[in-house]
Amino acid sequence: MFIVRPFIRRHSMLAPLCLCALAMAGTGAAAEPQSDLITMRNGDIHNGRVAERLFRMETLLGSFSVPAALTRKVEFSGGGRQARLTTRFGERFVGSFADQQLTVTRVLDTLLPVQSSEIAEIVIASRRSRQPRQPTPDTFESYAGDLFSGRVATTDFFLRHAGGVRLIKRAEIHLLDTNLSDADGLRVRLLLNDGSELQGVMPSHRISLIDRYGNRSEADIALFSRIAFNVNFDARAPSENYRMRVAASDRLQERLRDGSPGPEMVVLRGGAFERGDLQGDGDSDERNPQRIALKPFAIGIYEITFDEYDRFCRATGQELPDDGGWGRGRRPVINVSWDHAVAYSDWLSAQTGARYRLASDAEWEFAARAGSTSRFWWGDEPGSGNANCDGCGSLWGGEKSSPVGRFRANAYGLHDTAGNVFEWVGDCWSDRFDAAPDDGSALLKPGCGVRVIRGGAWSFPPKEVRSANRWRDFQARRSDDTGFRLVRVLNAE
Predict the structure, then answer these.
(1) Do residues 375 and 283 touch, judged by C-beta distance below 8 A?
(2) How many Å apart are CA 469 and CA 333, to the nearest integer?
């Protein structure tokens, strides 16, 4: 990858605005089926009612039995060897489907036995459930893609850190993130309820938990990418964004044709601002600062994840990108070219009826700065623990990408605009700011083969994750430090 950076200047301004009518345009979930739909791998579809009361999943975290009445969908892959169960609470269990055969009851017809290895998908119709449920104050995310609510039964955690060995009570912890196991134990980051942060090694690797259905499990903490404590106050859907400061009315999330959720977006009002090197010590391509007037737009709260991109690949027959052995799930997708990012945005547009695209260079900086005029959105100094970069003092810095949302959001509610992975934007490369349109749209040139990438990455030093910093890369190149996030268009273009 080769560097270069045009200039960009930024001017603080405007917070997110609620554009509710625009935000909801094109939104709609798939209709609830009146009976269960069982789609076979050979294309046959059976309507009826699955007779089993429980679906059993064998996962890396243990065995989980989920009431059929509280299941929304089961998707099979790998010739039926792998399954992904989604509940009506939005939970996910990923592993193998333990029941070899299901029975489907049909009106005015015989019972139909169905081999689970021959099923492509089961969609369960809404039905009442009297299943008693356990308290679910905590949320668990695994590297395999599981996401569910439950309760941590372990009460004490030992942490070896720079200050010595400390016993930490469950009630003290807000977030627990993991990275790698070594001979000394598991490397973790703890955000405590008092706002302090600790990084160190956890010598004990086991944790006991109980999910909302009463399943008890003991699993290696290293299998979890994150555990969030006391975040599910109303016992509804588990959440992956525990520090969101933007009002729900400023966010939007489209539904795909099958009813599944698309990327989470935040609505920004746009307006006038200056982009580029505001301190006078940036790179030559960040000068001189340029004043831009932007129309309203919505932009992804997170970088597009492997979960989201892999769904596109399965639907279109595209090759799955390499994850570098770091894991998929909620990690930002990497090893995708600019053309792959555009193909994903076109597919998402067709799926939702809304228009998605890559951000322009100017839109990206407006969103990343979030009203700031400093080098970084949080200030002029890189500090420690604010981003994933080589030298930023994070659990993953200099080693690999982190799952999205592991660091504080900026004032606009966006995560990872500094570090983690570079992000493709729509512009052709130019080392002159005055070549770019002053309305903030992308700079396009005939025969463009080099595109702008923004935000810095896990493998780069703090200087490269500044809000004004710009790099370039060949449009067809793929890298383990480059991904993308999307804009959702709110106005006619």
Answers:
(1) no
(2) 21
Task: Measure the CA–CA gap between 371 and 420, rounded to whole angstroms.
Answer: 21
For tokens 């990343």, the residue is: 368
| β-pair type (197-202, 185-192) | antiparallel
Categorise residue 396: left if φ over 0, alpha if ψ from -120 to 50, beta otherwise. alpha
In sequence order, what DSSP letters do the residues of 266-331 get, joined into one string?
EEE--EEEEEB-SSS-S-GGG-S-EEEEE--EEEESSPPBHHHHHHHHHHHTPPPPP-TTS--TTS
Query: What is the rounded average pLDDT of the residues 156-165?
Result: 93
Rounded CA separation 45/299 (Å): 38
Tens digit of pLDDT for each residue in 96-120? 999 999 999 987 778 999 999 999 9
DSSP 149-186: EEEE---EEEEEETTEEEEEEGGGEEEEEEEEEETTEE
174: tokens are 């807000």
Beta bridge partners of 197: 191
Domain map (residue ranges) of the chain: 36-123, 138-228, 254-489
Q: Which fold has domain 254-489?
A: paralog of FGE (formylglycine-generating enzyme) (3.90.1580)
Higher pLDDT, 389 or 205: 389
Label the pairing between strands 482-483 and 422-428: parallel
Please report the pLDDT score of residue 37 as a whole number.
94
Query: Percent of the chain, pLDDT > 90?
Result: 75
pLDDT tens, 40-78?
A: 999 999 999 999 999 999 999 999 999 999 999 999 988
